[in-house]
């Protein structure tokens, strides 16, 4: 059992800090944002003017790290140097929590895409050992994120059973991506609500929410380049009713709208969280 059950590293609603947003957010740091998140690979060893801009935000908001390139499921050796750099970066900026995608992105080289790990018992044991080693090097627990995927390489296990087995075997935490559940449920024809309900509440540390592209009625592409879909908002509201108002981060990676539109989505997260609190209070009243 996760000894840190129901303790979150942050609270409220957050926004992923991207370089395309920095200057606009610096000119008027929003009070609506409770925390921020960055990919450490994009900021480690960045100094000078850009480094000072990053420090501007880390001095004002709690931060989380969400890795892109650890490639936890790859056949190549675990990148322990990267993990040591991440640990030093966390200590430098006072950042307490790190997560990675439950996927891989290369072997001898970088693929610049997140590839699905085969859903097999062998893969569970392999990737769990690497997660445990990563946690040892980081000196803290980490979370893994459920990823979107399009062509599964082996479905000996279901995605649900694979996720649950890795979390248990690795004894790590979960970053639950609500948009990825919606995308995968449409692309692979399963019930998004059913998947969500089976995730272990005690291991969830925060949620991601983002937009996706509708390629066809039965095909969604996880882009992070559009507004959040109504299906994702609905599943997020359902998740709050089931798990409580879990801290939630809005991801937007490109095609940035006016900052006010992003803040409207952050405020919508906070509104749904408050509705879940009200519902919980009335249920116990």
Can you offer a commentary on this structure?
This protein has a single domain, classed as Divalent-metal-dependent TIM barrel enzymes (TIM Barrel, Alpha-Beta Barrel), CATH 3.20.20. Strands 1-2-3-4-7-8-9-12 form an eight-stranded parallel beta barrel. Strands 5-6 form a two-stranded antiparallel sheet. Strand 7, helix 5 and strand 8 form a beta-alpha-beta unit. The N terminus is likely disordered. The radius of gyration is 18 Å and the shape is globular. The two termini are 30 Å apart. With 285 residues, the chain is an alpha/beta fold. It is built from nine helices and twelve strands.
The main sheet comes to: 8 strands, parallel, barrel
Mean pLDDT: 91
CATH H-level homologous superfamily name: Divalent-metal-dependent TIM barrel enzymes
Q: How would you spell out the order of helices and strands? A: EHEHEHEEEHEHEHHEEEHEH
Spans of 5+ residues with little confidence (pLDDT < 50)? 1-5, 107-112
The DSSP helix count reads 9
Number of domains: 1
In CATH, the topology is named TIM Barrel
Structural class: alpha/beta
Radius of gyration: 18 Å
Given the C-alpha coordinates, what overall shape results? Answer: globular
N-end to C-end Cα span: 30 Å
Question: Strand-residue fraction?
Answer: 15-25%
Estimate percent helicity.
40-55%
Main attributes of the structure:
285 residues, alpha/beta, TIM Barrel, eight-stranded parallel β-barrel, two-stranded antiparallel ribbon, 9 helices, 12 strands, disordered N terminus
């Amino acid at each position: 059992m996760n000894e840190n059950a129901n303790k979150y590293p942050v609270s409220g609603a957050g926004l992923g800090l991207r370089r395309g947003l920095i200057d606009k957010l610096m000119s008027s740091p929003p009070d609506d944002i409770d925390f921020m998140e960055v990919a450490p690979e994009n900021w480690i060893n960045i100094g000078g003017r850009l480094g000072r801009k990053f420090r501007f935000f880390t001095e004002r908001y709690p931060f989380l790290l969400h890795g892109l390139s650890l490639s936890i499921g790859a056949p190549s050796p675990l990148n322990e140097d990267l993990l040591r750099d991440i640990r030093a970066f966390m200590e430098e900026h006072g950042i307490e929590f790190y997560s990675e995608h439950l996927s891989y992105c290369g072997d001898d080289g970088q693929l610049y895409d997140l590839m699905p790990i085969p859903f097999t018992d062998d893969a569970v044991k392999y990737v769990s050992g690497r997660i445990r080693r990563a946690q040892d090097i980081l000196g803290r627990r980490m979370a893994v994120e459920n990823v979107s995927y399009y062509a599964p390489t082996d479905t000996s296990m279901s995605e649900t059973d694979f996720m649950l087995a890795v979390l248990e075997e690795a004894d790590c935490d979960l970053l639950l991506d609500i948009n990825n559940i919606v995308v995968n449920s449409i692309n692979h024809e399963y019930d998004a609500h059913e998947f969500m309900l089976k995730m272990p509440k005690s291991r969830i540390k925060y949620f991601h929410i983002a937009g996706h592209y509708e390629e066809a009625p039965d095909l969604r592409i996880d882009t992070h380049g559009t507004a959040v879909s109504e299906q994702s908002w609905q599943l997020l509201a359902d998740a709050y009713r089931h798990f409580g108002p879990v801290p939630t981060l809005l991801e937007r990676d490109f095609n940035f709208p006016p900052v006010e539109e992003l803040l409207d989505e952050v405020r919508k997260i906070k509104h749904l969280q408050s509705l879940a609190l009200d519902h919980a209070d009335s249920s116990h009243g």
